Write a sequence for this structure.
């Protein structure tokens, strides 16, 4: 559930993390936490209808949905749950990213929770985007600037409804808890442990410095195998 005791991160850190794409953040994580090399990020492909949007960095609001089965709740209770859901989405540490697991099993993505209405409502509630293994729709009417990584694109919402929110979810191989710090772009997403977040920008810069001599020779008209070997040696000496 939401950890209300978590201290807010400085806005400057969000800005620093957002300067890098998600693959670079993954590279930086390998430096500061090599034990996380096989965990904490999406491992299955997701559709990104807006690949030109910049990286987003925010705290997770976690949700499970289903669409094949109709909600068993009475209409009055469904209305109360919807308000409670929006209160959860619109409160807590910000900025926020909605992370939604579709629990319909083999029918994952059958109905779209996300479209014109939800993208605009969630944007108004302070969310930067959504990461889901479910489906989305209404791409032309989508809220401007609201990022989306989804399992699929489909036409109908079927019986879609939020089954639960605030708990642990698993989307495209990435396990996420409420308030986790997420970095995402067109490539996918990664969880950044809060205690490591401040170390990531420096590690990302180090990755860039190590890549520079290799890229310079690889892009040079004077490329040769011997020069590549020298560039690799120089790269390994950068700390």
């Amino acid at each position: 559930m939401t950890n209300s005791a978590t201290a807010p991160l400085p806005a400057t850190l969000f800005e620093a993390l957002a300067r890098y794409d998600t693959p670079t953040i993954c590279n930086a994580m390998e430096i500061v936490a090599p034990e996380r090399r096989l965990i904490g990020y999406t491992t299955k492909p997701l559709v990104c209808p807006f690949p030109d949007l910049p990286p987003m960095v925010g705290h997770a609001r976690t949700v499970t949905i289903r669409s094949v089965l109709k909600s068993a709740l009475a209409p009055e209770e469904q209305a109360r749950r919807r308000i409670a859901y929006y209160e959860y989405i619109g409160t807590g540490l910000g900025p926020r990213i909605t992370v939604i697991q579709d629990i319909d099993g083999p029918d994952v993505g059958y109905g779209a929770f996300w479209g014109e209405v939800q993208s605009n409502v969630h944007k108004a509630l302070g969310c930067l985007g959504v990461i889901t293994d479910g489906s989305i729709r209404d791409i032309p009417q989508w809220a401007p600037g609201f990022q989306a990584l989804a399992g699929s694109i489909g036409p109908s919402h079927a019986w879609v409804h939020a089954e639960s929110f605030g708990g642990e979810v698993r989307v495209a191989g990435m396990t996420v808890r409420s308030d986790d710090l997420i970095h995402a772009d067109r490539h996918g997403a990664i969880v950044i442990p809060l205690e490591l977040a401040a170390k990531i920008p420096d590690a990302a810069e180090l990755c860039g410095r190590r890549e520079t001599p290799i890229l310079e020779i690889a892009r040079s008209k004077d490329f040769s195998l011997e020069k590549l070997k020298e560039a690799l040696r120089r790269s390994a000496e950068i700390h």
Observations:
- Residues 1-5 have pLDDT under 50 and may be disordered.
- DSSP finds six helices and twelve strands in the chain.
- The first helix runs from residue 11 to 17.
- The first strand starts at residue 56 and ends at 66.
